[in-house]
Amino acid sequence: MPGDMFTTMYSGLKVLEKYMWLLDSYVLDYFTGRHWNKLPPSWRTTLEDVEPQELGYFITQSCESYQRVWPLSLLALRVASSCLSVTRDEVNFNNLFEEQEEKESLCCDVDLAVKSNEPTVQSKQHSEDGLVINRHSEWQVPDVTPCLKHPRLKYVFSKHVKPKKRHEISRMAKVTASVAQMENCQFIVDIGSGLGHLARLLAYGYGLKVCCLEAQQGLSRQARKLDMELEVSVSKILDKNQFASLHRPVHLSMTLDSQLTANSFTEDLKMAFGASEEVFRFGIVGLHPCGDLAPILMHLFVECPNAKFINIVGCCYMKLSTGIVSGFNGYPMSKFLCTRPHSLSYGAREIACHAIEVYCQRLCVGQYEDLKVHCYRAVLEKILTKHWPHLRHTMIKSIKHTTDMTFHQYITLALSRLGLEVPIEDVTSEETEINLLEWRRVVSFYTLRLMLAPLVESVLLRDRQLYLQELDIHSELVPLFDPLLSPRNSILIGRKKN
């Protein structure tokens, strides 16, 4: 692990520590907590007349943002958050899977760079993250089955799959197949496989032996039906020998928790696969495992001698266990952080799950009128705490907001879901009207919190990377997905050294 990785992590923690008050200031408490007054005076003065569109330009560092003089402390925070965060720019697949002659050329470039102590273009781009992007030159273009080669069959993997999921599974499968080929692993366990879309692409498309491990039996039953549906389509096009060579995924219904032992996990997999090999090597794949499931998978990977690699893209950081329970801690994982007086609040981990690119894009193109819903929710919270203080921070099912929705319509719908009567005197009061006029301030405050979201996620991801590095396991963080389609877009790849 490069020394600057620890420096970057430490600097990021110091920034978050300084602005934890902002991360912990929920927007729904904007009025009850008088959040606007918490901002530094110079920030309030500047943001008072800033349109949300201009703020979007500022956050994304577009040239239009320089039409005004911004407070130096706010500029410094934006730059620090950007520089100390893991890059979120989607990696170009052409840089991961070069044609053979291009790969050989790239390998030569890497060798020359090492000899001359000069970083390659790729390592220059990501060296501050402690990534070893030039190792991608080792990645292999994965072998594919006739299912992926045949032009009439590519559609079978996109049926019943939404565009976001299609984007994710196509890239996840290609990377997983490449790493499996490098590590000589035939077996893959897809944790939280759901309907099995990724597993089918890995099995039928890349010829891997895949176990779909899913806690919900209903999803496993549906996945089996989709397996058979795919096979019916394929059997009409491939010849008998080609069809007979395909591997059907196996399905295992079980729940993983921190008490599961590595030996038990391995034996369950061997039984599911019907594997008799003395050398049983497998890879672990997790596409957006929720909360503690991600660190549980990482612990199993470390403790299972048969597990040779892990590809994991986490999500739902707010559900991580942050206090050691029965010897398990979801965050932090690395010794580097565990030995320091550090924590990330629920509010900080929750904001890290939000999509900054999508939000800022809407600001920049001027589609921010419907963001008044942030103000509506904050006013609703003020009314709730006045009449029903025990309902403070009550979860209210998302309400689809339109530009012509009035606050009266919003609060009527929201309170009806709680079985409450609308206090008309509060809805029509002068105080409420004044608060509703502050919606631009509310949007600005939320945007400032969101500006720190990538830095929070970076600390969480680097902690996981450090955990593996401390155990002498090679790891990489790669921005695999388009963040506009899949906000949790970084894959952590861990490979045990032979």
Question: Main traits of this protein?
Answer:
498 residues; alpha/beta; globular
Task: Walk me through this protein's architecture.
The chain is of the alpha/beta class and 498 residues long. Helix 1 runs antiparallel to helix 24 (453-470) and helix 19 packs across helix 23 (439-451). The chain has helices spanning 3-18, 20-23, 41-47, 52-59, 72-83, 93-96, 100-116, 121-126, 146-149, 163-182, 197-205, 217-235, 240-244, 262-273, 293-303, 335-338, 346-351, 356-364, 372-387, 407-417, 424-427, 430-436, 439-451, 453-470; strands spanning 187-191, 209-214, 250-253, 282-290, 307-315, 474-479, 490-495. Helix 15 links the parallel strand 4 (282-290) and strand 5 (307-315). Mean pLDDT is 86; it is low at 98-135. It has 24 helices and 7 strands.
Helix content: 40-55%
User: What's the average pLDDT?
Assistant: 86
Main pleated sheet: 7 strands, mixed
Sum up the overall morphology in one term. globular
Question: How does the SSE layout of this entry go?
Answer:
Layout: H1 3-18, H2 20-23, H3 41-47, H4 52-59, H5 72-83, H6 93-96, H7 100-116, H8 121-126, H9 146-149, H10 163-182, E1 187-191, H11 197-205, E2 209-214, H12 217-235, H13 240-244, E3 250-253, H14 262-273, E4 282-290, H15 293-303, E5 307-315, H16 335-338, H17 346-351, H18 356-364, H19 372-387, H20 407-417, H21 424-427, H22 430-436, H23 439-451, H24 453-470, E6 474-479, E7 490-495
Parallel strand pairs: 1-2, 1-4, 2-3, 4-5
Antiparallel strand pairs: 5-7, 6-7
Helix pairs in contact: 1-24, 4-18, 4-23, 10-11, 19-23
